Amino acid sequence: MKRNDMKERLNLKISTFRKNSEKLILIFLICLFVVLSPSHVQAQTHFKLDAETLILTAQRYFSIELGLSPEELQDVKLATHVKSHEVADITWVCLKEEHLLLALSEIDKIVHGGWVVATGRNPGQKQRVGDMRTPEGIFQIESIEDARHWGFYEDSVTKERIGYGPYFIRLKTGWKGIGIHGTDEDHLHEIGKNASHGCIRMANDNLLEVVKMAKIGQKIVILPKLSQ
After folding, report:
1. pLDDT at position 27
2. pLDDT at 12
3. Using CA atoms, how far apart are residues 153 and 149, in angstroms rounded to an integer?
């Protein structure tokens, strides 16, 4: 009887172990499904402009800022990928009121990408250090820096800690510390708003796309908005 009791207890333990293992596997698979599901992927990339909006915005820029005629605007096209020899010709355009960053070629009228971004918490031209305004004008990319180990900076108003994301694209604006950088998950809701200290802030997955096309010396145009 004792041997049978021991056997039953052993079988019970094995059965319990199997059930617990099955539960853990099920939980793991559910978590994996959530992470890889289309809705989650969309949540990570919804700050990228769709093709139609991107082309229309680029055409408005070419028309208003460069004076292209309606006939010339028909030549504006969207690139499927960036060729190595095209990188040097890329101009970055940031529209503060629209909270957009565009990558385009003013020479070939090719549009390489567009993303929703956060700009300075306060509107208008930058006047002094700490005024939380994004400077307006024509500038250049000064450096592309690995920011993965920079940690966090403190929001001077909310006192919240905000991440820089994987890279910091430093801009030569005449002001110290102005650039294009990423953020953290807790502050993705600020993308598309007046929220930064003066930098152009964007989602990290979008920033990685930008870094692939960014090069020191490229022109960046920062406008208050597209004038009517």
Report:
1. 62
2. 62
3. 12
The Cα 133–Cα 176 span in angstroms is 13
109: left (phi over 0), alpha (psi -120 to 50) or beta: left
The two tokens of residue 25 are 């596997």
Query: How far, CA to CA in Å, does 193 sit from each of 68, 69, 144, 159, 220?
Result: 30, 32, 24, 18, 20
Say how far residue 108 (Cα) sits from the centre of its chain: 25
CA distance 141 to 149: 21
Distances (CA, A) of 219 to 25, 45, 101: 51, 25, 13
pLDDT at 16 over 90: no
Closest of 132, 140, 137, 144 to residue 91, by C-alpha: 140
pTM: 0.79
Paired with 220 in beta bridges are: 92, 139
